[in-house]
Write a sequence for this structure.
């Protein structure tokens, strides 16, 4: 089907993963920076086996144009 995965931004990726894990979700990649970068990502698997990427929100609270 050529479907890869969906990506969602998370305000607090660590708390999000903790909450998902507590609800029984399977975290397939714990939160951490991407190789060679600073963007923090994680992956969770939905009940059908599809991967969902979580991306830590950057510059939370800085507003537009700042």
């Amino acid at each position: 089907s050529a479907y890869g995965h969906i990506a969602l931004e998370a305000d607090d990726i660590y708390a999000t993963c903790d909450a998902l894990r507590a609800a029984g979700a399977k975290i397939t990649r714990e939160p951490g920076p991407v190789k060679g970068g600073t963007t923090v990502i994680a992956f969770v698997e939905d009940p059908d086996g599809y991967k969902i990427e979580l991306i830590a929100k950057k510059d939370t609270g800085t507003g537009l144009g700042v």
